[in-house]
Amino acid sequence: MGVASVEFIDPREPVAIVPILRAGLALAEHAPSILPATKTYHLVYEKIYILWEFLMGLGSFKLPDQFPEGCRVFVVDPMLATGGTIVAALDLIKERGVDNIQIKVVSAVAAPPALQKLSEKFPGMLHVYAGIIDPTVNDKGFIIPGLGDAGDRSFGT
After folding, report:
1. Which CATH number fits domain 15-155: 3.40.50.2020, 3.90.800.10, 3.50.50.60, 3.40.50.300?
2. What is the Cα–Cα distance from 89 to 84, expressed in whole angstroms?
3. I want to staple 83 with a disulfide (CB 3.0 to 4.6 A). Which of 12, 117, 140, 146 is the partner?
4. In whole angstroms, what is the distance from residue 154 CA to residue 101 CA?
């Protein structure tokens, strides 16, 4: 218990929630009830393995061509392991006129490789909020101990 630094959000200002599907939907589900001026967009990344090499491709996305000036963007992905997906997502968002200071990344579990990659790629005021930082990622890119597949857990599949 102690003093906490907080940032208030004017509910009349534009806020965008960008869940990385499908697992990010669980974290984004109730955001509009707290932030009334919220619009929700979506990103889907496909993870492809060819000859045991991991490749990531953009499956589809629903983002505006340009975010409104001053719009805060909350990117939600429950697991930040290697950082590949979240960095790709932030690149797309930044191409649409959003500064680091306006972006907040929200996750349940983060691992050092993802946090390091975010720090190097987006220096400055990018904020990352994680429920816990697990210590490592295994050779397959899974967080250890982690939670397992967040999408499967969220949707019971």
Report:
1. 3.40.50.2020
2. 9
3. 117
4. 30
Does residue 145 have a cis peptide bond before it, meaning omega lies within 30 degrees of 0?
A: yes
Domains of the chain by residue range: 15-155
- Sort strands 136-137 and 143-144 into parallel, antiparallel or unpaired: antiparallel
| Separation in Å, CA 109 to CA 49, 79, 106 | 23, 5, 9
Q: Using CA atoms, how far apart are residues 128 and 62, in angstroms rounded to an integer?
A: 22
Tokens 């191409």 belong to 95
List, for residues 62-119, the tens digit of each pLDDT value: 888 898 888 889 899 888 988 888 898 899 899 998 888 889 999 988 999 999 999 9
Q: Are strands 53-62 and 127-133 parallel, antiparallel or unpaired?
A: unpaired
- Say which amino acid occupies 93: I
